[in-house]
Amino acid sequence: MTRDYEQFPDDDNGNVLWQMHEDGDDLTEPHEIEYSIAFTTQEQAEKCALYLLAEEQKISLFQDEESDAVEWIITIYVYMEPEYSDIVDLEQWFSKIAAEHGGEYDGWGCMAYVYDDEDEDDYED
């Protein structure tokens, strides 16, 4: 299949979405996409976490002790269809929130949802 650069632009987000598509992921199905913001202090992370909760976001907050420097990570869970423009819009919003709270936006990811038509036949009545 030829890549549609309007649907999958030639940048990091477009490349990830294109790879998901090529791997058989159904991008018309909602996915739980995880966006991350990193902080150097617990206080900054907690203030941002409270702000995100007030914005009705589903989040988790944890200390990443495996990184070179101790970091606090907020993961924001958004259930959505992985559509390029929506991902870019949310990245811009989370980058702005991160900067306002002394953190740094750290990207997104999600689990792949690959459906095999043959498997569906196995579960029919």
Helices and strands in order, then pairings?
Blueprint: H1 12-22, E1 31-39, H2 42-54, E2 58-64, E3 71-80, H3 84-100, E4 104-110, H4 117-122
Antiparallel strand pairs: 1-3, 1-4, 2-3
Distance between the termini: 34 Å
Low-confidence stretches: 119-125
Q: Find the count of extended strands (DSSP E, 2+ residues).
A: 4
- Return the structural class: alpha+beta
Radius of gyration: 17 Å
Gross CATH architecture? 2-Layer Sandwich
Q: Write the CATH homologous superfamily.
A: RraB-like
Strand-residue proportion: 25-35%
Number of domains: 1
Describe the global form: elongated
Q: What is the CATH T-level topology?
A: Alpha-Beta Plaits
Main sheet record: 4 strands, antiparallel
Mean pLDDT score, rounded? 91
Strand line-up of the largest beta sheet: 2-3-1-4
Provide a brief overview of the structure.
By secondary structure, the chain is of the alpha+beta class. It contains 4 helices and 4 strands, in the order αβαββαβα. The longest helix has 17 residues, at 84-100.
Walkthrough of the structure:
It is a single chain. The chain has 125 residues and is of the alpha+beta class. The chain has a single domain (12-122), classed as Alpha-Beta Plaits (2-Layer Sandwich). It contains four helices and four strands. The protein has helices at residues 12-22, 42-54, 84-100, 117-122; strands at 31-39, 58-64, 71-80, 104-110. Strands 2-3-1-4 form a four-stranded antiparallel beta sheet. A hairpin with a 6-residue loop joins strand 2 and strand 3. The longest helix has 17 residues, at 84-100. It is elongated. The protein starts with 11 loop residues before the first helix and ends with a helix.
